[in-house]
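It would be a great kindness if you could assist me with a short task in structural biology. The matter concerns a single protein, recorded as an amino acid sequence and a row of backbone structure tokens. Kindly check, if you would, that the fold set down in the tokens agrees with what the sequence suggests. Thank you for your consideration; the sequence and its tokens are set out here:
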Amino acid sequence: MTAYDDRPSTHTGDDSGTHRPARPFRTVAFGVGAVLAANSTPTPLYVTYQERWGFSAGTLTTVFAVYAAGVLAALLLVGGLSDRIGRRPVLQVSLCALIASYALFLAADGVTWLYCARAVQGLATGVFTGAAGAALADLHPRADHRTAGLVNSAAMPSGLAVGATVSGALAQWGPAPLRSPFLVLAGVSLVVLAAISAWVPETVAAPGRQWSRVVRLQPLRVPPEARREFLVAAMGVAVAWAVGGLYLGLAGSLVKELLHGSDSFVAGLVILSMQGVAGAAQLTWALRWSTVPDRVASAVGCAALCLGILAVAGALFTGSPVLFFAGSAVTGVGFGLAFMGSSRRITQAAPLARRGETLAAFFVVAYLAFSVPSVLAGLLTTRFGLVHTFYLFAETTALLSAATAVRSVRLDAIHLS
């Protein structure tokens, strides 16, 4: 998720990577997973919050969307910060901000606290992931940027899966359902902060300390030569992240509707069945079909999204938990491959000198898709009910997924002819 830090910068150390230790790279990669785990930690708890404080499904999805708004603000305002002041201080400060967001969750006694906690969490996550993506590229032992990008990409759904599953288990069987998940996160984040401080070297040579220019609006422009690829890649990532956002925002409500009861652990398993499979699909594709063009991964991912979301809709219609989890797994394959293929396509299509701003626009599309459909779904749910809203969402997503797969294949046919 290197929206702004992908542009060339001055690095320290041996560019050949032959003498570069692996521990700093692994530390940052673990940090990415831990930070993304924090994103999905509230998901199994939303239904409990809703029951305790009596807010609507529309409010629930806006609480979720505030996180994406925070990430967008970070990308637009401080996305290139680590290029100017260094990777390590950005990673350290953003981790401290994340820990502060956990304190807000722990103190929460109403929905206003949730809004504040998610906003701070989103801002901190946006800053951390941008700097971490750049740091992974800097620190890879063999200076292999493609592998570093794969690790960064796979860490996102993997972290989401672990965070939701652990949170659901703690909420179901732990002593303090709404507090123990965030206490665990705070402990893990402190360990990551200490490890980064001790083991991760600064990779930006002579970083500046121009704190007066820390916040500045980043331009969103797509170079003319990359616009056709950007359109297809943006369609693919928008469909994938819209589905991912709906799962993270409404997983607990879907489980409640399907099983006629509130079960935090099962809600966590829903995220695991989707996001865990997404991470595994990315790694499997990279290991077994590394020579297959990225356009194929994107098209296969969109096709899987179409089939998976229709299967989930069918599960809600028939009341089948088995079909629900199977459909979620297929959807996870689609999410992982569509995201991986789309991000690689736009990275390769963008000219090196303007890659940062092109990826910036790409991730803005992604996070808008992550949040806006979830908010709309929440608003529609209050009027039409969760199941009928999900049917509408599934039909729309299936059509867009199929159209994106066809568009991708047709565009590539034109390029090859």
Q: What stands out?
A: Residues 254 and 321 are 11 Å apart (CA to CA). The longest helix spans residues 227-259. DSSP finds 14 helices and no strands in the chain. Residues 23-416 form a domain with the Growth Hormone; Chain: A; fold (CATH 1.20.1250.20).
